[in-house]
Every structure is written in structure tokens, then in C-alpha cells.
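Support request from a user on the community tier.

User writes: "When I paste my C-alpha cells into the form, the page sometimes reloads and wipes my input. The last time it worked, I copied everything first. Here is what I submitted, just in case something in the input itself triggers the reload:"
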């Protein structure tokens, strides 16, 4: 489509110049472009991003397809998928009704990344570094994954093994914001409707555990949620899966860990583990429920005990 075809009339009969400008940034000309034209265009776009200053520093003004969301105000800031911290520009703060809800200073994602890296590198404890990253994960997913993508070698051991083992052991103590889904025996008969409580309509990958064999630590029950959370974070950062298309899950079938059964703050079912037919019927209902809502979802079973994982 060329620019002339994109001209649209407003109710007063006048052309909308902004619509024309927007199309010109995103629509290819009707004639074939040479490789030189493309290289020149890409170089110009890079130069544009590097030359900008102020709140546009490091950003491009090329047209990007806008996201359409219903949230406004504090709902934006409280949603880790939409929150950008101090990176919201003045125009965005007005449109999203968050002006005045943030400090006036704007810091782009590169500045915010350096701030988080400084805090991480000042810590000597890996578990505290894990907590810093997970708190960021729960507030600003864009920044969280940017750090993982740019510093994978440094961050992977903090998000997953070996640090995730200790994070799982301490999961109940640090539990704050809900992430992922939990299914237990009390949910039998309700799972088909439960899956619609999840906000994502386009889940592509589910990582599920029953917490029965978490790394070399054994039965950690519902505390094993740290495993699918960490693994899916790496899938997003290293595999390019969009964060809103993954779902961490725990099948909470109880625990045989006596320490957890006696722990007053344990977040899971404080009953011995389900066995036999009751166990497999719960798993079967879970599979039917998630594949009904997301028919093409990939389900990865993670850290199940050998007696369950090897059943043919």
C-alpha cells in the first residue's frame, strides 16, 4: 500500500496528516527497493536513535505498532507486563493517566539497567541477587528480561541453577506477588474453568512440576514453583518466547517432607502426597483443562520423581 492509498478523511472532510506520516514510517513503497536503499534506510534509523537526547535518548521515533490496553493509572504501574518504571515519556504519562504517580525524572531502559546492575554487583550473596532479580521480575518484566538477554552468562546462574535450589527452599518465606498457577486435589472438577483465571489468552509454553524432586533437594512441594519460574525466564531470554506466552505451574499434590508439614508458613497443601489413581486423575484433568483452553500449548514436565516420570 502506498501513502496516497492510506489517506483517510476525518469527519470534517480533512485528510489526517498524522495517519499519513505514520504509514510512511511502516509501509514499503510500491516499487522494489535496492539493497543500497535498504542499507541507507537502516543506517538512517540507527543514526536517528543515536542522535536523540532527553527523554528520547536511546529510542527511535520510527513507527511501532501501538499496544492497545484497557488498564490506566496505577493499574499500569502495578502490572509487570506494562510497567516501564521511570521510562514512561510525558506523552505516555498523560495518555495512561499516570502523570504525577511517578517522579518527574525520566530514565530510559539503559539507565535503569545500569542501576539494577550496580545493585546486583554490590551484593556478595547469590540468593540476595536472586531476590533482587525476582523483585524486578514482579514489577517490570521488560527491564528484567532486558538484563537477562544482555548479561545471560552472569544472570543465568542467579535465575536458575545453582541459586534456584536455595530460592525454592526459601520460597515460602519470600512469597509475595502471585506468579503462575497452582492446582490441587480440592480443585478437582473445577480445572476447566480455573484455567480461564489466567490473564493470558495466547499461552504457548507451560512448565509444570509437582515438586517431588527439585534438583538434588528432593521433595519441596509447592516451594518448587521456583523451578518453572526460573526455567521459563531463561526460555524467554534465550529462546525469544514472549513473556506473556509462558505459564509456570505447580501441581500441589501434597508433600512427604516432614519439615514442610511442620513449617507454619508453608504455602502448599499440608497433607501427604497423593498416590495411585488419585494422583494420575488429577494430572489428567490438568492436561485436559490446559489443552482445552490452549490447544497447541507445549507442556514441559520438570522435576517429577522418577517413579512418576518413568511411568509408561
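"...and here is what came back when it finally went through:"
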Amino acid at each position: 500500500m502506498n501513502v496516497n492509498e492510506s489517506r483517510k478523511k476525518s469527519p470534517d472532510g480533512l485528510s489526517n496528516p498524522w495517519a499519513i506520516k505514520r504509514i510512511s514510517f511502516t509501509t514499503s513503497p510500491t516499487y522494489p527497493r535496492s539493497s543500497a536503499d535498504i542499507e541507507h534506510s537502516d543506517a538512517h534509523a540507527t543514526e536517528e536513535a543515536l542522535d536523540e537526547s532527553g527523554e528520547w535518548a536511546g529510542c527511535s521515533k520510527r513507527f511501532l505498532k501501538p499496544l492497545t490496553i484497557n488498564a490506566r493509572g496505577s493499574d499500569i504501574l502495578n502490572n509487570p507486563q506494562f510497567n516501564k518504571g521511570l521510562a514512561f515519556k510525558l506523552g505516555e504519562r498523560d495518555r495512561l493517566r499516570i502523570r504525577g504517580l511517578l517522579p518527574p525524572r525520566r530514565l530510559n531502559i539503559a539507565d535503569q539497567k545500569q542501576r539494577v546492575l550496580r545493585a546486583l554487583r554490590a551484593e556478595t550473596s547469590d540468593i540476595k541477587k536472586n531476590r533482587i532479580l525476582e523483585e524486578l521480575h514482579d514489577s517490570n518484566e521488560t527491564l528484567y528480561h532486558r538484563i537477562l538477554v544482555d548479561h545471560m552468562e552472569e544472570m543465568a546462574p542467579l535465575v536458575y541453577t545453582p541459586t534456584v535450589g536455595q530460592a525454592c527452599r526459601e520460597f515460602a518465606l519470600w512469597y509475595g506477588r502471585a506468579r503462575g498457577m497452582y492446582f490441587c486435589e480440592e480443585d478437582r472438577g473445577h480445572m476447566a474453568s480455573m484455567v480461564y483465571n489466567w490473564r493470558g489468552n495466547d499461552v504457548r509454553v507451560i512448565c509444570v512440576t509437582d515438586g517431588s524432586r527439585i534438583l538434588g533437594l528432593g521433595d519441596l512441594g509447592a516451594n518448587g514453583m521456583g523451578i518453572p519460574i526460573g526455567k521459563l525466564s531463561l526460555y524467554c531470554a534465550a529462546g525469544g518466547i514472549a513473556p506473556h506466552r509462558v505459564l509456570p505451574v505447580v501441581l500441589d499434590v501434597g508433600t512427604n517432607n516432614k519439615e514442610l508439614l511442620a513449617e507454619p508458613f508453608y504455602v502448599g497443601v499440608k497433607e501427604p502426597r497423593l498416590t495411585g489413581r488419585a494422583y494420575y486423575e488429577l494430572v489428567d484433568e490438568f492436561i485436559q483443562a490446559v489443552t482445552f483452553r490452549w490447544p497447541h500449548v507445549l507442556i514441559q514436565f520438570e522435576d517429577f520423581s522418577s517413579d512418576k516420570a518413568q511411568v509408561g
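Agent notes: The reload is a front-end session timeout and is unrelated to the input. The chain has two domains: 4-95, 179-309. Strands lie at 181-184, 205-209, 246-252, 298-301. Escalated to web team.
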